[in-house]
């Protein structure tokens, strides 16, 4: 892994653990054992790093979407839900959820990238639901975009709330989403 990739990975971790505004280049340099000048070489401003973190997540989501392109709607949905399962397993929060709380205090360019990521996720889940309903694999009464919003927000919230409840609530919610869609 290159220095640039290590900086992005650690920044992603810190954003999910502490929030965007709660870490500095000094924190990164201390953990990575590099000088802050090295971080500034790759990311002159913190907003440059924020953009890179969001774009990295965007690329991962696009890769997963491509990987699942030929799968059934249910397999695609399960692939999407696996993102949150991984986040939950790592005891983290969703990058979108973490950055959304800082939206009014981050540079506008970071916010714009976050909106692109959110749109990609929402559009993808909407496509999965539309395809699933068309193929009679899913049943739901809401508009596909509305149902996608319900699923995404349920997963986002469940990852955060189950950090507090310390119960099996995450799995219950995830399974309920899938069960609720079955005809």
Question: Can you put this structure into words, describing what you see?
Answer:
The chain has helices at residues 3-17, 25-32, 36-42, 46-67, 73-89, 95-101, 108-134, 144-165, 169-181. α2 (25-32) crosses α3, α4 runs parallel beside α7 (108-134) and α7 packs across α8 (144-165). The radius of gyration is 18 Å and the shape is elongated. It has 183 residues and is an all-alpha fold. It has a domain at 54-181: Tetracycline Repressor, domain 2 (Orthogonal Bundle).
How would you summarize the topology of this molecule?
Blueprint: H1 3-17, H2 25-32, H3 36-42, H4 46-67, H5 73-89, H6 95-101, H7 108-134, H8 144-165, H9 169-181
Helix pairs in contact: 1-4, 1-6, 2-3, 4-7, 5-7, 5-8, 5-9, 7-8, 8-9
A few lines on this structure:
This protein has 183 residues and is mainly α. It is 75% helix and 0% strand.
Q: Which terms summarize this structure?
A:
183 residues, mainly alpha, Tetracycline Repressor, domain 2, 9 helices
| Annotated CATH architecture of the domain at 54-181 | Orthogonal Bundle
Main sheet record: none
Mean pLDDT over the full residue set: 95
Estimate the strand proportion.
under 5%
Helix content: over 70%
CATH homologous superfamily (4th level) name of the domain at 54-181: Tetracycline Repressor, domain 2
Radius of gyration: 18 Å
Shape: elongated
Low-confidence stretches: none
Text of the CATH class of the domain at 54-181: Mainly Alpha
